[in-house]
Amino acid sequence: MSVSPAEVAVVPDTAMPHARLVGVTRVFSRRGKGEDIHALGPIDLDLKRGEFFSVVGPSGCGKSTLLDVLAGLATPTSGTAEFEGRPIAGVPAGVGAVFQEDASFPWLSVTDNVAFGLRRAGVDPAEIARRVDYAIGFMGLRGFADAYPAQLSGGMRQRVCIARTLVMQPRLILLDEPFGALDAQTRLLMGDELLRMWRETGATVLLITHALDEAAMLADRVGVMSARPGVFIDIVATGWDAERDSRIVSHPRFGDLTGHLWERLRVESLKHLREG
Amino acid sequence: MRSALGSAVVVLVLLVVWEGLHLAVSNSGLPSPVATLVRLGVLLGDADFWRQAGETGRAFAAAVVLSTFAGIGLGILLGMNRTTGAVAQPILVNLYALPKVTLYPVVLLIFGLGISARIAFGIMHGMIPLTLFTMNAILNMKPVYRRSAAVMGLTPWQSSFYVVLPAILPEVITGARLGVSLCLLGVLIGEMFAARNGLGFVVMQAMERGDMPSVLAVALLLAVLALVVNAALLALDRAWRR
Ligand SMILES: Nc1ncnc2c1ncn2[C@@H]1O[C@H](COP(=O)(O)OP(=O)(O)OP(=O)(O)O)[C@@H](O)[C@H]1O
Ligand SMILES: [Mg+2]
After folding, report:
1. Complex ipTM, two decimals?
2. Nearest ligand by distance to the CA of A68
3. Protein residues whose CB sits closer than 6 Å to any atom of ligand 1
4. pTM of the complete model beyond 0.95
5. Cα separations (Å) of B28 from A55, B206, B210, B213, B217?
6. What are chain A's domains?
C-alpha cells in the first residue's frame, strides 16, 4: 500500500515541536497618539508535545499577549507562530484557552456553560452529555451543575471555564492565571487538579502564573520573562517526574528552584515597579 | 410576583393621594376616585370609546414594534465600532433630552394628519433609549466573552447570536421598558394635538366640555396599561437574569 504525503503529515512527529514561536514580537500601534507600545518579544519558544510549560514574568510584560498569539487571537507584528507544523492564522483547531478574566457566561447554568462549545460544534447530544458530565465531575462541580455563575465563587467560575475548555478535548491548553484570585492554599490544591488533568488528557499545557511556587511545582519547564517588552531571559527545567503533586513543595530541591526563579525575576520586577 | 405587588402598592398610594386631593380642593373640579371609576365603567361600555382606544392601541403597537426593531438594529450597528459609538453617544443623548413636541409640526408636514404621523412621533420618543442602551451594552460587553467564543471554534455569526445577543439582553430590556412608555407618550401627545381619533383626542374633547371624570378615567386606564407593560418587561428581565 502506498502512503500518500497527506497521510504522512497526519502521523504525529515526536521530534517536531507541538507549537513553535520564532522571533515573535507584538507592537500595539497608537496611531500617532504617543509612542507605539512594544508589548512582547522577540520570543523564541518550542513547546514539546505533552509538556507542562509555565510562564512567569513581571506584570505587564506581555504574558497574555503571548497567549493571544498562540491562541490565534492576535497576529504577531513580526516573526512566525506555528501549531502542529502549520502557521497559526485564526484560532487553530485543537487549541483551548482559559483567560485571565472570568469568562463564564452568566446567562447559562454550569452545565450549559460547559456544553456550550460542543453544542455549537454540532456534536452528538449523547456524546455531549457524556463529556460534560465527566468534566463537571472532574472539576468538582457536581453539586453545582444547575447553578448559575452568579451563585459561584470566583475560583469555581474559573473551574467552569476550565471544564468548558476540557470538553473540547484540546491538544494544547493555554491557561492565563486561572487561579490568580485564589488564596495560596487553594491554589496549590487546584494545582493538583491541573496536574491530574494534564496527565489524564496528555495535552500540552502552557500555564501563565505570577506565583513562583505554582510554576515550580507544576511545570516541566519554567520560562522566565523580562519586563516589557517580555523576552525569555531563562528557561528552567524542573526535572520532576510526571506523577508529582503539591507535596513536592517540601522537596529539598523545591526551595532551590523557587529561589533561582526569584533571583532571575527580582531585577525585572523592580524595573516594572520603577517604571510604573 | 413581587413586581405585581409593587405595582399594586403604587396604585393604592396614588388612589389615597388622589382622594386626599379631591377632598382638599372640593368643588374645584377634581372628581373623586369613585366618580372616576364609575365614569370609566360607562366609557368601557361604549363602543365608540373602544374604537378610539383601538386607534391608540394600533398606533402604540406599531410604534413599539418599529422602534424596537429600528432601535436595537441601529444600536447594534453603532455599537460594533468604538468610533461610531463615541460619535453617536452625545448626539443620541441630546436628541433624547430635546423636547420633541417642538418637532411635531415637522412630523405632521411629512406624514400628514393620519395615524402614521402619530406612529412616527411615538418612534421618535421610544427609539432613542433602545438605541442608546443597545449600543452601550455592546460597547461595554466583556471582550473576553467573544474571545472565549472564538477559541471554542464559533464563527463570528455564531458568537453574535449565541454570545453577544444573550449578553446584552438585560440592558436591551431596560431600554425597551423606557422605550415602550415613551412610545405611548409620543402617540398620545400626537393624538392630543392634531388628530380626530385616539384616546388623546378623547381626552382633549372631554377637557373642552369640562368633563373631568372622563379625562381622569382615560388617564387611569393608561396608567394601568403602562404599569402592566412595565411589570411584564420587568418579569421578563428577572426571568432572564435569574
Ligand atoms: N490592546 C492593547 N492596546 C495597547 N496596549 C496593550 C493592549 N493589550 C496589551 N497592551 C499592553 O501590552 C503590555 C503587555 O500586556 P499583557 O496583558 O500581555 O501583559 P501581562 O504580562 O499579561 O500582564 P498581567 O501580568 O498584568 O496580566 C502592557 O503594557 C499592556 O498595557
Ligand atoms: Mg495578563
Report:
1. 0.85
2. 1
3. A 28, 37, 39, 57, 59-65, 100, 228
4. no
5. 80, 16, 11, 12, 17
6. 1-94+170-276 (3.40.50.300), 104-168 (no CATH)
